[in-house]
Write a structure and sequence with these properties.
This protein is of the alpha/beta class. It is built from 18 helices and 23 strands. The protein binds glutamine.
């Protein structure tokens, strides 16, 4: 059992998730089985109730776990399917300890952070490391070293390291090297201070990954090696990258893989990054370009729709196409700027969402796409609103709506799922995770998936109201994907439109380099056609 912990110092947002995923990728390329887990020291039980504006998107796993978006990075980089065990939060740790205490498992002992909480953390980590059968488990510790919340985790890891040995339990510390002053000097002091902080809890890092706008110069590297007491080879430069998929290559080129394998006593195999480089090459050297417009409500925060952006990158790579994103705040749709954006777009995506803010703007964008035959993909809320728009403007049901936004509408074309009516708690109570879907033969969805039985991830409480199915279908919006029992509408396609698809599920979560989400691929493909026809 080999474990590599990735912690962060100086400040948050250094890309520990990409660092963990990239280290995993280079190790995997040497023939090792790699898995990854994330520790989020906040008290929430899971990410399901967190505001995407603060934390970025909620990533959904096959088992329905609502996780931090870094789980998405691990799945995409390592091409694995993770479970809720890979997403640890303080809420889960304390929840489990308190449950054991209530059951009487601690036999009258005083329950304390050390050893009870730390033991729980250790067992959660080793359960994944052993249970997954991985050669190496990457463990990313969220937050910044020095935060009060991370203390029990660092203590648990310090203990694990002395139990397992320094060559089986390694620490990679990610820091920031700012460039300051008229000489554009790369400043190593923040790194030195954050390593000092880590040492104060008994942990000496094995590797330092220094994030910097530029590649680290030799002076900065040796200074970090000297002051932080790590070998020069173990100081790795992680400069700003054009694509996150370049990062594994940066690490490999600096010899980090060999260093880690050597430290862990694992025999080194030649690097198998050829496939990765091929994908990267397709990402970096596109022949065509399309503009996809995203209409959402958290547009300034790129992380809120991270999996969509990645899915389009994967789709673009397979079509030798750069996907340029146009972004529109759905509340601003009636302004002139928005009109111009709609006209500029070669394809439109309405992603998932909750709450009524910006709904009318999204409906207007859907109407524009339908009437002007602009390629369109609606995901979850986007799918539901495509049905609302259709009911209002094609079926003439002027006040059609989802009961999520208007409980008194005369035409509730989107309504709460029957099993959701009695639900009162917010956390982990939606229709969540992987569900099988039957896809109609001969449909666009079938062409894109190349299958009539698929499985996709869900996260919703509302659905297409079964009472409206026939009426809507008769006018040309057809349901070409349904749940296995036939009750839930999962995919809709508009007849007579070059590409107008909606899905109740979230195809973006399963998109991978080399295997893009089929519906995103379909949108980019249609956008290419739309653009070339428009440009003549
Ligand atoms: N708010 C809608 C529902 O709960 C859509 C959810 C989503 O887009 N993820 O069904």
């Amino acid at each position: 059992m080999k474990i590599i912990v990735v912690s962060g110092g100086v400040l948050s947002g250094l890309g520990k998730g990409i660092t963990s995923s990239s280290i995993g990728t280079v190790l995997k390329a040497r023939g090792l089985k790699v898995t990854a887990m994330k520790i989020d020291p906040y008290l929430n039980f899971d990410a399901g109730t967190l505001n995407p504006f603060e934390h970025g998107e909620v990533f959904v796993l096959d088992d329905g776990c609502e996780a931090d978006l870094d789980l998405g990075n691990y799945e995409r980089f390592l091409d694995v399917n993770l479970t809720s065990d890979h997403s640890v939060t303080t809420g889960k740790v304390y929840g489990s300890v308190i449950e054991k205490e209530r059951t009487g498992n601690f036999l009258g002992k005083t329950v304390q952070i050390i050893p009870h909480i730390t033991n729980e953390i250790k067992s959660m980590i080793s359960n994944v490391a052993i249970g997954s059968g991985a050669d190496v488990t990457m463990v990313e510790l969220g937050g910044t070293v020095g935060d009060i919340e991370s203390m029990p985790y660092l203590e648990a890891m310090r203990q694990m390291r002395s139990e397992l040995g320094h060559d089986s339990f390694l620490f990679v510390h990610t820091t920031l090297v700012p460039i300051l002053g008229s000489h554009h000097e790369q400043k190593t002091k923040p790194t030195q201070h954050s390593v000092k902080e880590l040492r104060s809890v008994g942990i000496q890092p094995d590797v330092i990954v220094a994030r910097c706008a530029k590649p680290l110069d030799d002076g900065a590297k040796s200074k970090i090696a000297l002051f932080c007491d790590v070998p020069l080879q173990a100081v790795v430069s992680a400069p700003d990258a054009k694509s996150i998929y370049q990062v594994p290559i940066f690490l490999e080129e600096q010899g980090l893989t060999d260093y880690l394998l050597n430290r862990m006593g694992i025999e080194s195999k030649p690097d198998g990054l050829a496939g990765w480089k091929g994908f990267l090459n397709r990402v970096m050297n596109p022949k065509h370009e399309v503009k996809i417009l995203l209409v959402g409500k958290y547009m300034e925060q790129r992380d809120s729709y991270m999996s969509h952006y990645e899915a389009f990158t994967h789709a673009g790579a397979e079509l030798e196409t750069r996907v340029k994103f146009l972004r529109m705040e759905s509340e601003e749709i009636d302004r002139d700027v928005s009109r111009a954006l709609l006209e500029e777009a070669d394809g439109i995506l309405i992603p998932g969402g909750f709450g009524s803010r910006g709904i009318e703007g999204k409906i207007e964008a859907i109407r524009y796409a339908r009437e002007n035959k602009v390629p369109f993909l609606g995901v979850c809320l986007g799918f539901q609103l495509a049905n609302v728009e259709f009911a209002r403007n094609v079926l003439g049901m002027g006040d059609a709506n989802s009961t999520e936004f208007d409980t008194h509408t005369a035409h509730p074309v989107v309504d709460i799922l029957p099993e959701q009516r009695s639900v009162t708690k917010m956390g982990a109570t939606m229709r969540l995770g992987a569900q099988p879907i039957l896809v109609e033969k001969g449909s666009t969805a079938e062409r894109l998936y190349g299958a009539t039985e698929i499985t996709e991830r869900h996260r919703h409480r509302y659905e297409i109201n079964p009472h409206y199915i026939d009426t809507i279908q008769q006018k040309g919006l057809r349901y070409t994907g349904r749940s296995a029992d036939g009750k839930r509408m999962e995919i809709c396609e508009l007849k007579g439109h070059p590409f107008f698809i909606g899905s109740q599920f979230h195809p973006e979560f399963k998109s991978r380099p080399g295997r893009p989400a089929p519906l995103h691929f379909g949108l980019v493909e249609a956008a290419l056609r739309y653009r070339s026809e428009r440009d003549g």
